[in-house]
Amino acid sequence: MPETGLLEPTSISHGPVESPSLVNESAANTEGEPDEQLFQELSMAAGQAAHDINNLLSVCMGYSDILYANPEELPEGGLKDIEKIFKSCQDFAQVAQSTIELILAKETITPQVREPAFAGQALPPELLAKAKTRGSRLRLLKDMALRLLPVDEMSGALVAARHLEQNFLENQRSRGYCESIIEAANKILDICKDWQAAFEGGKAQAEQIDLRFSMEHWQKLVKAQAATRRPGVKLEYARVKESFPIFVPRTQMFNVLQNLVVNACDAFEGQKPGVIKLEVKREQPPAELVDPDATAGKFVAISVTDNGMGMSPEVLKRIFETFYTTKAPGKGTGLGLASVKKFLDDNRGFVGVESQPGQGSKFTIYLPENSSAQARPPLTKAAAA
After folding, report:
1. Same domain for 210 and 334?
2. Which residue from 372, 358, 381 is spatially nearest to 298, judged by alpha carbons?
3. Which of 72-86, 174-188, 194-208, 212-226 has the lowest mean pLDDT?
4. In whole angstroms, what is the distance from residue 290 CA to residue 292 CA?
5. Of 160, 130, 129, nearest in space to 67 by CA
6. 18 and 70 housed in the same domain
């Protein structure tokens, strides 16, 4: 990823921006301010969206770098296509970075928020001056989401990546890089739409997903993500032949998987990259995770295992706390695993973690199996992604 400076949200312009009301009147206090709970929910929605966008941008930028480094293999007009992708990613990265900084800002009105995660990149005073109340801060966060929709830059990146893909007729490796860029860009668009919907009072819609089919596509994208984030890491996926239907929001489910894989990649920091294993199976949550009365029915378990540095008992106790991170300044936000926990809480799921220092870690998420409607194979690749 290129270095990106912080961005005043109004410096990206797609024309006039309509800003509908942020909250229902019933959710405001007597001064017209949104209440603390709504403020926290919307702030986290924006922060988690920005965090997930940053993760996906690493795929777009990483593979664009590889293509750019081999100009002799590029088709005619290829360099211009890559430059369009770079520009789109940089614009999105700036908005995502500013969003995270706004949420983690020192001069916060939210007591739970700690020091900025990005050392030396404090928000401009003029931006913080506009965000001293809950309502004004939410308006800025919504403005950032609105300025990504219509997402002209990322749409331009998609056009450029598709043009490249169509011209790599003989070079299957480069064609594969383009396919990963396209899939990551499409996921970014989905996240942007969910971000905007959250600020308009909507919720991501759950749908029937069969992990037998969706994991085939998702594992390819997280494998690309692992390769660009931690070169040399090996990601293994145990393919399944039977149906594993669940009922959850599709984009959020993918974000959970990518956050767990990114977390596993970072477990190899300071040592030789190793192996990450993905597995899907039927398994009931351990008794210590759940109320026995709440575990009726079958569960689908998705596990992400690494042989990295592992975690101490002290760290394990805090890994799902919002903003908690053991990474160096500028390397982590403390939003990834927090978003995993929130997703599971919202979808009647659970998470178990096994880890010891020097022995790696295993994260297993449990979601209710939903076989009320027979999940069918997608008609296209895009339908499964």
Report:
1. yes
2. 372
3. 194-208
4. 6
5. 160
6. yes
